[in-house]
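so the lab meeting is tmrw and i was supposed to have these ready like two days ago... anyway. pasting both below. for each one the top line is the aa sequence and the line under it is the structure tokens. i havent really looked at them closely yet so no promises
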Amino acid sequence: MLPSRLPCSPPCSNKCTPQALLTAINAARRAVLGGVLVRIAEDPVLTVRWAGAMRLSEAVAAYGGTVVDSLTGDHPTIAVGDLDHQPSGKIVLYPTWQGWSGGESSRAPPPGS
């Protein structure tokens, strides 16, 4: 059982970031038997409809994730948002999106993109 790891920072830099994070958690909890560990830098109140007016940490829990203070590098990682550091992980994936289109890369996007 390998947990999936999702570092996210900052969670609301893009209006689609909360949706991308919650979608990743929702899918990963079904696909990864070890659980979904999420490290967040901020805990804002979300404005996306399907998260209601929950704080990010509440939405993470509602969609099946567990908020943690730190992550180790021994599991796959999905890095969401503009991270201020290089995440560690056996495999690190960077989701990307624009409107209804999405994809993933094994390379970090340029800052602010």
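ok protien two:
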Amino acid sequence: MKPQQGTIVMYCREGCEDSELARAVLASKGVPFREVDIDRDPQGLAFVRKVNGGFESTPTILLPNGQILVEPSEAQLLAALERLSLLTERR
């Protein structure tokens, strides 16, 4: 599963602190993304299990270049966004 050009897809679940952190980082930097709640989307759940060896690790973030980040720290997420030139200056 590859995201549409320029789209970040964040597979998450309600109440997940790591997902809340990733959501906050993306929103604060003005980076558009689409959320998929794996508790409500069977295809999303199947994807997360497939790429995480059967585990339901959230967030699992699919970047536009096909790279997958699993439970990234804030620094790891920001570094990936920087490498893809997805960060915009927020004032």
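from a quick look at the 2nd one: Residues 17-28 form the longest helix (12 residues). The CA atoms of residues 10 and 60 lie 6 Å apart. will dig more after coffe
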